[in-house]
Amino acid sequence: MQELSATYLFDPLCGWCYGASPMIERLLSAGIDVHLLPTGLFSGSGAREMDATFAAYAWSNDQRIERLSGQPFSEDYRSKVLNKAGSLFDSGAATLAITATGIVDYRKRFDALRVIQHARYVTGLDITSLPVLADLLASEGLADAASLLIEAPDELLASNRHLIAQGQDLFRRLGANGVPALAIERNGQQRLLDASALFSSYDNLVAHLKAA
Fold this sequence. Notes:
Blueprint: E1 5-10, H1 15-29, E2 33-38, E3 48-49, H2 52-69, H3 75-82, E4 88-89, H4 92-104, H5 109-123, H6 130-139, H7 143-151, H8 154-173, E5 181-186, E6 189-192, H9 202-211
Parallel strand pairs: 1-2
Antiparallel strand pairs: 1-5, 3-4, 5-6
C-alpha cells in the first residue's frame, strides 16, 4: 500500500477520535502516509461550557466508545473534567498545540494528539489550558513546539486557521457527517472510508484501504 495516502479529519475533543487513535497509530507504524487535518468542530462557535446534562450524555457516549475500541475513559476524567464546575468544552487550544507541533515537525502531529487525548481521558487534565498543553508537549520532548504555543506568533495563528480551513473544506467536499473521518487518496482521487472500519479489526481496516 505504499502508493496509498490518507487524510485524517479529527477534533482533539472528539471521544470517537480518541477511540480511533489506535488504528491511526497502526497505519502510521505500517508506513502509510496519514496527513492529520483538524476540523475545528468543537472550537469557536462549536465550543460550550460543560453542564450536568451534557456531562452525563458525554460519559454515556464515552462508555460506548470504550466498549468498541478498548480505549480507557478514567474516573479522573469523569470527576476532574466532565463534572468540574465551569469546565469548558473547547478544542481551540488543543488544536493550536497540534498545529504548533506540526510547524516544528509535521511528522509529530499525531504524537501531540495522542498525548493530549491521554491527558484528558486518562489523567483528567484540563486540555483547554495553554500552560497545561505546553507542559504536555515539553514532557514528550517537544519543547520547541511548547515554546511556540506559549509565544503564539502570528505565523502559528495563521497556520492554525489554514489547517482548520483545509479540514473543513475536505469535510464538506467529501460529504462527511462527523469525525473521525478518513479520506483515502490513490492516483489523485479521494474517497471517504466508512468510519466503522476504524472500530473493527486492523485486518478489516486494511481490507477497506485496499478496496479503496
